[in-house]
Design a protein that fits this description.
mainly alpha; about 75% helix
Length: about 300
Amino acid sequence: MQQHTYQTLLDVSKRVNWRIDDIIGGDKKLNFSKPFLPETFARTEALAFLSDGERLTLNHIRAHGYLAMFGLVEECILPFVNMAIEHDAGEPHRVPALLQFAEEEVKHMELFRRFRREFAAGFGSECGFIGPPEAVRDAFLAHQPMAVAIATLGIEWMSQAHYVESVRDDADLDPQFKSLLKHHWQEESQHARIDALLLKELARSTTPEKVDRAIDEYFEIGAFLDGGLKSLAQLDLESFERTTGRALTPDQQEQFLHVQHQALRWTFLGSAMRNKNFLAALGELSPKARARVEEASAMFC
């Protein structure tokens, strides 16, 4: 297996680097006649009481939440990277690589804002989202650095796997939305490997007991995010009824919330906890840590 260093990852990042204007604007627009998210994430087919048109509407609403969620997690990750920059580990390429990382995170935040603005203009109906972002960010960063590093590593590998495993070969999806996820993945692939190096740095000065506590706090971060995902499912229901003008029955609402909450859990939690690269990094940290995360992942599938 290739051993990545800050220098090699910085070199790759400089080659990959793209501009937002290259992928959005002009004739590069979202096509609302096509789904944006793969069914593995949207899970609209499980809702038999929806028409085909309503399933497409729900897919788009879920895509809005996807854009907003990744914009939100970028705001959580950026301060963590900035804190890592302040720590001198004696590696000459470390700070330049982290500065490149931080610059790309800022670019990604603007990328998702641009797509959300285009979505709002084309969709024509307001979609709710959880927040405020500052409260989510502060709750995320309130945990010890190793727990934050583990959560960040899971998010980065998750975004990479979303494109490679679920989006890239799905010919039914809107090409413009696929382009967004492709370009995001191209840079997140380097970010995930840098996160793994940061986690190894933290592991050098820790103990098995501290690793156990970090995993405890990682689960606390996951539980906090899961609460937000439950709220997002409710907001998506409200967005769906407002957009379609259809009032679901109480039984239909209950099924909608159950299916969509579980879909959100898989998209943003389970797919990270089952990611082979994330689990491999945890295994290097502690076989026990890997086993605990694998066992807990079952509830988010």
